Amino acid sequence: MAEVVGDEGPATGTEQRIWQLDVLRGSALCGILLVNIPPLTGGGSIEPGVVHPVRAVLDWTVQNRFFPIFSVLFGMSFAMLLDGAAARTRHPRLVLLRRLVALGVLGFAHQFLQPGEALLPYAVVGLFVLLPASWLPRAVVLAAAAVAMAAALATVGAGLPLLPGLFLLGLAITRYRVAETLQARGRQLAVLFMVACLAAVPALVWQDRVVSDRADAAAGLAMAAAYVTGLLLLCDTPARRALRAALEPLGRMALTNYVTATLLVLAGNLALGLGGTDRWGAMFALAAAILGLQIAWSRWWLSAFRYGPLEWCLRCVTWSAVVPNRRAALQAI
Question: Per-residue pLDDT for 14 more than 50?
């Protein structure tokens, strides 16, 4: 069984956190921040028709690579919440509905700061795809995920069209209890890592030679699979201590850190004036400063509380109750 960390539910429930998923979530936040800084600041601009070497590297390594990871994890979290809610209430899908609506409201507000942000589309697709799919057998969900992703790749390509398939894949992964048995899947992960790396080579060549959303999506999915399996393999090595120290708290407060990163980027841009420039060094320094601050803040906050500020608010709305959050209060129950 994968090592887990206790995570109380609405009262003193028995939910469990799988720390490897928080590490993956934290790594996805790092990549998403690098993707979001140029459009948020208006930086990275150079002469039309010229591709800056740094921009090219980001296109090869970051763009469309972490969005799939975050999306699959969202589908997994949805399924885990449904399982937990089913043990506590006769109407578990009502719990999920409240969460999706609350997430949509937060995403709508976030859109004013970051047009094109992910929370609102996640809530909408979750409502119309994940919620109905929660009644389906796991084999049907897995088949639907494959069909949806294949259809998106064959037609439109990267971005939002991939969301339904990625969400369904996350739902299927949870239904097959993959995350709970990670430590017994080292050989499978190694094989998948090698397959993903081999698949990424022609996908990257395709992306380099053809300007196409389909090529970007194919390369993004292959490299996302390589990143996930590679990181999970590292989680079973001595590197796990460093990964957990940096990425786990970042991932446990993913919602809070995702939204506050937008505020921090906008504030940093007021000081640095990155709009209309190609000062990539300054943008990377800003990203490093934000991530360092968020890691330190998350570690400090989680030493006293179970959930991040926005995570706690979302959980209270989800359960229509004030959820205990302070660790001292929880220990006294």
Answer: no
Number of structural domains in the chain: 1
Residue 59: give the domain boundaries. 4-332
- Give me the count of residues in the chain: 333
Q: Are 240 and 190 in contact (CB under 8 A)?
A: no
Q: Which amino acid is at 270?
A: L
- Mapping DSSP to helix (H, G, I), strand (E, B) and coil, where does residue 231 land? helix
- Give the model's pLDDT for residue 2: 38
What tens digit of pLDDT does each residue of 101-132 get? 999 999 999 999 999 899 999 999 999 999 99
**Per-residue pLDDT reduced to its tens digit, 68-86:** 999 999 999 999 999 999 9
- Check: CB of residue 52 under 8 Å from CB of residue 280: yes
